[in-house]
UniProtKB/TrEMBL annotation:
The lineage of its organism: Bacteria, Pseudomonadati, Bacteroidota, Bacteroidia, Bacteroidales. Residues 1-24 form the signal peptide. It comes from the Bacteria. It holds the Pfam family Glyco_hydro_109_C. It comes from Prevotella fusca JCM 17724. SUPFAM superfamilies: Glyceraldehyde-3-phosphate dehydrogenase-like, C-terminal domain, NAD(P)-binding Rossmann-fold domains. This is Gfo/Idh/MocA family oxidoreductase.
Length: 515
């Protein structure tokens, strides 16, 4: 425990310097009191303010740089060319050719080429630039925190792919950077922007389901066909970063897809907070087999179980159930279930709602029958009528274009568009640094629970006492006048940028022909 405490002191004082490449560790200090594990919560530094509902000055245009252009990053570059009022300033990847290939998206959109950065430390040079507002971060997990912290130290807002932080040390450092620097630190949790989740959230906020008491989420995605696709640093790297991480660490390492949308429904750190969790897992069977298949050698230890389950209680008497399984054969499933005192919503294995005739009438929807019971799913016609009545304003605004542009069915485009909208209008982001912390902490906290015989673990209050200051989670919107002005400024910027881009590429093509 003395080593754990000395590490905590170093982090709290800000005196622990990290190398450019680091292997994340589960080593945050904790103590066990009356059978419950309690982790240390560093004090907020003097002069440092909460980032709850934080706003920053409006941006007529968002100057963005992308770091990590593999599986998700290159698609993000293409999506952003469809959003008015943005300019891609820089592209960075460990492998230079990946960054260079993304120039074609800019050419296709008649936008000027971006500057290219590459190599292990290319992102550091990128972050030192003065003409970048936002760094969009999508490399492997172990580099999420490294790039985000470097960008924020250099005065940049960050949007970080999931999971944005791998352990409590990284979580607390990102919180402190966001609070101290007054910079947005958003985790790119796209599942919060799926159509069903957005509509169900709106219904829950309008009390269609009564008081939501029990919620379920998951990431059940058998990855055997993908393990070979994850980036490998050299010929000796047989596993790739993701399988290697699952072998070394125990816990729900990818909780955010299941947890994010349901945490918004429960108003986490906006009137309620996660209080205590208990985690348990199965032994590793398929995980070990996968390592043996890829290395050709026996696997004697695989830390992460094939299936991990986490139960979380909240301050207001709610229960959250989260599952993680990337190893065993099963249909893809994020679960997303809401159980309320008056109704029920479910996304997997099929989408549906359960409400009685009386409750459907109270919600303003005429039922197809007076005999409807919450014991059965609504008919397709009744469910569609409910969705039409309570369609999320975000779905109404973006659905058509989102389905055309794409990105996991369109939710990625909605996520990116909302991020830009909030920055351009000077609004709080939909997902703040405390959401990031709460949705990522299950990994290390779950490990603590399981390594100590599945004991309860207290979930730290990442807001440091301010979780009840805001009453209810809500998306932020500008006034119609301000929104229209911001949209006009964005379109004007993009029109001029495309004129500049067209000339740029014409000149570049002429120069190429002369060679």
């Amino acid at each position: 425990m003395s080593i754990r405490r000395s590490l905590a002191a170093a982090f709290i004082l800000g005196s622990l310097f990290l190398p450019s490449t680091v292997s994340a560790q589960f080593n945050w200090p904790y103590k066990v009191t009356n059978g419950t594990a309690i982790t240390d919560v560093p004090k907020r530094a003097a002069g440092q303010e909460s980032a709850l509902n934080m706003t920053t000055p409006k941006m007529k245009a968002v100057r963005v740089a992308f770091v990590g252009l593999g599986m998700r990053g290159h698609d993000a570059v293409e999506r952003w060319t469809h959003i008015p009022g943005i300019q891609v300033m820089a592209l960075c990847d460990h492998e230079r050719d990946r960054a260079e290939k993304c120039q074609e998206y800019l050419r296709k959109a008649s936008m000027p080429a971006a500057d290219i950065y590459s190599g292990e430390d290319g992102y550091k040079e990128l972050c030192r630039r003065k003409d970048i507002d936002l760094v969009y971060i999508a490399p492997d997990w172990k580099h999420h925190f490294l790039v985000a912290s470097e960008a924020m130290k250099n005065g940049k807002h960050v949007a970080v792919e999931v999971p944005a932080a791998m352990n409590l040390s990284e979580i607390w450092q990102l919180i402190d950077l966001s609070e101290k620097k007054r910079l947005h630190c958003m985790m790119l949790e796209n599942c919060c922007y799926d159509f069903f989740e957005l509509n169900a959230l709106n219904m829950a906020q309008q009390k269609v389901f009564g008081e939501v008491l029990y919620v379920q989420g998951a990431y059940r995605h058998e990855l055997s066909q993908f393990w070979d696709s994850y980036w490998k640093k050299d010929a000796q790297d047989k596993l790739g970063w993701r399988l290697d991480y699952n072998q070394k660490f125990r816990g729900d390492l990818y909780a955010t897809h299941g947890l994010g949308p349901i945490a918004q429904v429960l108003d986490i750190h906006r009137g309620d907070k996660m209080k205590t969790l208990i985690a348990m897992d199965t032994k590793s069977v398929n995980g070990k087999k996968q390592v043996e298949k890829m290395t050709g050698e026996p696997c004697t230890e695989f830390r992460n179980g094939d299936h991990t389950t986490t139960l979380i209680s909240t301050e207001n008497g709610k229960v959250i159930e989260i599952h993680h399984n990337v190893m065993t054969p099963q249909p893809y499933n994020r679960m997303y279930q809401l159980t309320g005192t008056k109704g029920f919503a479910n996304k997997y294995p099929f989408e549906g709602f359960a409400l009685s005739s009386d409750e459907l009438k109270k919600s303003g929807v005429t039922p197809s029958s007076d005999n409807l019971s919450g014991h059965s799913y609504l008919s397709k016609a009744d469910a569609q009528a409910l969705i039409q009545k309570y369609e999320s304003p975000i779905v109404a605004k973006y659905e058509k274009q989102a389905k055309e542009v794409g990105g996991h069915g369109g939710m990625d485009f909605i996520m990116d568009s909302r991020l830009v909208y909030c920055l351009q209008n000077g609004l709080p982001l939909d997902i703040d640094v405390y959401d990031l912390a709460e949705w990522c902490c299950l990994a290390e906290l779950g490990s603590i629970s399981m390594d100590n015989g599945n004991i309860p673990v207290e979930v730290p209050d990442f807001t440091r006492g301010q979780w009840n200051n805001i009453k209810g989670y809500r998306h932020a919107y500008a006034s119609p006048t301000d929104e229209a002005q911001a949209a006009a400024d964005a379109m004007d910027f993009t029109t001029k940028l495309k004129e500049k881009g067209k000339k740029y590429w014409e000149k570049a093509d002429k120069a190429t022909k002369k060679k």
